[in-house]
Hints:
The longest helix has 16 residues. Helix content is 33%, strand content 21%. The chain has an 8-stranded mixed β-sheet with strand order 9-10-8-7-13-14-15-16, sandwiched between helices. Strands 19-18-17-20-21-22 form a 6-stranded parallel β-sheet, with helices on both faces. Strands 3-2-6-5-4 form a 5-stranded antiparallel β-sheet. The protein folds into 3 domains: 75 residues, no CATH class; 186 residues, Rossmann fold; 167 residues, Rossmann fold. By secondary structure, the protein is α/β, with parallel strands linked by helices.
Amino acid sequence: MNTDTPHRSHGVFPLSALYLVTPEGNCTCDPELLHTRETSIWQSSSRIRTTNTQCGATRVFPDTTRLVKERCTRSFYRFRVKLRVAVVTESFLPQTNGVTNSVVQILESLKAEGHKAILIAPTAPEDEFLGFPVIRTTRFIFRSFPVALPLLNMTSILRTFRPDVVHVASPFLLGRQALAVSRRLGIPTVAVFQTDIAGYTGRYGLAALKAASHQTVRNIHRLADVNLAPTQETARYLKDMGVTRVAVWGRGVDLNGFHPRHRTREATHAWRDAIAPDHQLVIGFVGRLAPEKQVDRFVELLGLKNVSFLIVGDGPERARLEKLFAGHPVTFTGALHGDDLATAYAAMDVFVHCGEEETFGQTIQEALASGLPVVAPAIGGPASIIENGVNGFLVNPRKDDAYRKAVKEIIKDADLRHEMRLNARKSVETKSWAATNDKLFTHYKNLAGSDYSLSVS
């Protein structure tokens, strides 16, 4: 087990290292006093003091001395301290993808626990989300995807909000700026690795930039106090590039929204009647219709007996894919959300995902939660989610007809299909978003606390 202590700039000090000196000279860590914001601040040569104007108590933050911590060693966890979190993301609503979904879930958990937050993103439907202020950035469009540009006033935004931690989702141009500014201001940061930028360069005809993309990822993530990778494989990728302070944080799944019981809904029966009127089995996919998802490999499945196909999602590849599959039993629904999305999963019998650049595979988890056997490449995120032969099959995408053979084995054996359906649900039952985000918030609280040591397995 290795430990790595994150960068900490002088001038900003951890919450749990503080104590309050009352007018009587007593040391206290009363959480109610910690939350009072009416304060005046002054700095001496060895420590920063924050004097509460209501009660006269003084917060003392150690700088060059450890006296404070020695005198008051209560853990941050013993307080119900409400955090202030600045969430910076390269993607948000109305864009639908894994980054957006995880940020939405994080904000919902922050709201549920009474924390304060701001959101900095290239897009958003309104000026607030769940009551949290939204700051939109300028952006440009690349292959129908909005790419966020840095903010001229990032420093003033963070200084004004005074976050305890800055969470950066899938950092690129905007995220790099947020990490650099936070580092300069001494604000702890969490960077979540979610996008295989180097892998995407090849898919988008930019293979010459692949080496530079690896270097870009390395330079960005080395700015963060903690880097969270979705799987052990992606954690190794970051560490092999020289990124330090890496831990694994997976993704949660909506266990109530996606559930096998939805298979008996009237709406699900109506979907199946429309998609598979002759009671065919339904092979499905959910995700953005873009080159990196490789939905065109569904051509390998065409011609399987007693099978129809359901493609859920939208994106720049949709028109080409509709033309490619014209004349075959393939239904395109466009992007779906909420109950409609849950019904679409419930209408499927097998889920197939051919993307080889997935750092995790959020729709794979949603399919498993819905009780679907999954067939996916034995590369990247899927390899950490699917147990080969138990809740689905992992295939070598370089082999001809690998997907066809795996799908055929599932659809021809009703007993295997039933067993995999049961195992699929079991494999994600401990991965609720509440449990997953509780682990994330532990990183937040530890960073906002003192002497944070990152354990890496």
